[in-house]
Design brief:
The protein has 216 residues and is an alpha/beta fold. It has a single domain, classed as Rossmann fold (3-Layer(aba) Sandwich), CATH 3.40.50.2020. It is built from seven helices and ten strands. It has a six-stranded mixed β-sheet, sandwiched between helices. The chain has a two-stranded antiparallel ribbon with strand order 1-4. The radius of gyration is 17 Å and the shape is globular.
């Protein structure tokens, strides 16, 4: 769910401007799953741009404060959301922890890094939502450690039906700065794509596993 339309548009403009999001429907990228994707998203690029990372972190921080108050802990999902999560926590002067995909195989074998006590209320920060599986894996780890998850905020989501279903089934509210649906009109306006490419890009999200760059 987009929580602010103006912020969604500005986020899309910034991420396209710095090539954190690249659109290439004619020469698609290949994901680890084998899917052919006309979009590549690496929001960690934003951390290299002070003005943009400040905009992103302040936007999320403002919503967290207004919705959940300040008696909470901020958790970033490793590794992509550690940077933006820490910036959000710093903005709100709140504790920060991060969650690994799995426990370390040495030392204390932690999956959750940082000072954390059971019973705390937690807001989770993500950089990108695709299928949602890695994000919800972090949520499960936190819940198993005794956390109460208030919700998750992400910079961007592809808006796959599979992800939406997974979050609904898990009972986790997901809010994002921007999504694929809001990205395409901005990319078209900024001449990053043509109208024909825009239509082709819309078909990808409907069925990404079988999408082909040769589609009309």
């Amino acid at each position: 769910m987009i929580f602010n339309q103006n912020i969604a548009q500005l986020t899309a403009e910034y991420l396209l401007q710095i090539n954190a999001i690249k659109l290439n429907p004619e020469n698609p990228f290949t994901w680890a799953s084998g899917w052919k994707s006309p979009i590549y998203c690496d929001n960690r690029v934003a951390l290299s741009y002070p003005a943009i990372r400040t905009f992103l972190s302040k936007s999320i921080a403002h919503e967290i404060k207004s919705q959940y108050g300040l008696e909470i802990v901020i958790a970033g999902v490793a590794t992509g959301a550690i940077g933006i999560g820490m910036l959000v926590a710093q903005e709100l002067n709140l504790p920060f922890i991060y969650v690994r995909p799995e426990p370390k195989k040495h030392g204390r074998q932690n999956q959750i890094e940082g000072a954390f006590e059971p019973g705390k209320k937690v807001v989770v920060i993500e950089d990108l939502i695709s299928t949602g599986m890695s994000s919800l894996n972090a949520v499960t780890a936190l819940q198993n450690a005794g956390a109460t998850i208030l919700g998750m905020f992400a910079l961007f989501t592809y808006g796959f039906e599979k992800a939406e279903k997974a979050f609904n089934e898990a009972g986790i509210e997901l809010q994002t700065l921007c999504d694929y649906e809001n990205l395409l009109p901005v990319a078209l306006k900024e001449n990053k794509i043509s109208q024909t490419q825009s239509e082709n890009l819309k078909t990808w999200r409907k069925d990404p596993s079988s999408w082909s760059p040769s589609q009309d």
